[in-house]
Amino acid sequence: MSEACRDGIQAINEKAYGEIAAPRLAVRGVSIGYGGPPVVRGLDLEVPNGALTAIVGPNGCGKSTLLKAMARVLPVTRGEVLLEGRPVHRRPTREVATRMALLPQGPVAPEGLRVRELVAQGRFPHQTLLRQWSREDASAVATAMKAADVDVFADRPVASLSGGQRQRCWIAMVLAQNTPILLLDEPTTFLDLRIQVEIMGLLTRISREEGRTLVVVLHELNVAAAFADRMVMMKDGAIHAEGPPSEVFTERNLAEVFSLAARVLTDPESGRPVCVPLLPGVPSLRAAAE
């Protein structure tokens, strides 16, 4: 590829999603609390552009708190969150919402709301008194519904859908917001494993094909290891380990962070690490063979 061609592609990406050389999202020395001791303490993190970063850790370690602060929903007591090089908490809400979308944990749609109406809410940050609903908005909603595979449900009430279908509708809503950064808080919780895999496959495709930056808080460790480009493992409000899943998802880290005795194997087809818990009092096949 010629240098001129590379420069042209970079210019297109920068126009769509902003400067891509530096991290679009970074956390510098951030502490977050709720009036008592900090839940997140002096945390530093650079989120890689155009990749899916999974944040994992035990309950209460500060995963969701960190995500909410990154999204400007929670204030920080120390440090700063940088969105495209500028402190996110000093930027106007609408401006942030055109650059970064948040899907909180367990969202609930108003009763009677139809799928198309829910997805259309993702376009609100782009509208003003002078710019009302447009063809661009309609196109973004249609594209998002198709990408999330919910276009066939467009005129159905959200409440009439299954849990996995509803979650796809919420993902379509944040896609319609058309931001370069997506933050999702446990989007696969309480869903069957097959649906978890489908949703994570959708998010992975969005990141790789569209170049969007995704940060996803996940509860299921094996799902996180299977789909993440980068894994951040938290413990007690701090980062215990971060990097590719092959480096973070280790037996030692699982023991230190989750107090979990497990074997971590490598899937021969994908090359991804897989956790197999060791049951107390039950000898492993290796021990039985010996």
What report would you give on this structure?
There is one protein chain. With 290 residues, the chain is an alpha/beta fold. The protein folds into two domains: 163 residues, P-loop containing nucleotide triphosphate hydrolases (Rossmann fold, 3-Layer(aba) Sandwich), CATH 3.40.50; 71 residues, no CATH class. 36% of the residues lie in helices and 22% in strands. It is built from eleven helices and twelve strands. Strands 6-7-8-3-9-10 form a six-stranded mixed beta sheet, sandwiched between helices. A hairpin with a 6-residue loop joins strand 11 and strand 12. Helix 5 runs antiparallel to helix 6. It is globular, with a radius of gyration of 20 Å.
Write the layout of secondary structure elements.
Layout: H1 3-17, E1 25-32, E2 40-47, E3 52-56, H2 63-70, E4 78-83, E5 86-87, H3 93-97, E6 100-103, H4 115-120, H5 135-147, H6 163-176, E7 181-185, H7 193-210, E8 213-217, H8 221-227, E9 230-235, E10 238-243, H9 245-248, H10 251-258, E11 262-266, E12 273-277, H11 285-289
Parallel strand pairs: 3-8, 3-9, 6-7, 7-8
Antiparallel strand pairs: 1-2, 1-4, 4-5, 9-10, 11-12
Helix pairs in contact: 5-6
Number of domains: 2
Count of separate DSSP helical elements: 11
Order of helices and strands: HEEEHEEHEHHHEHEHEEHHEEH
Low-confidence stretches: 1-20
Short summary of the structure?
By secondary structure, this protein is of the alpha/beta class. Helix content is 36%, strand content 22%. The radius of gyration is 20 Å and the shape is globular.
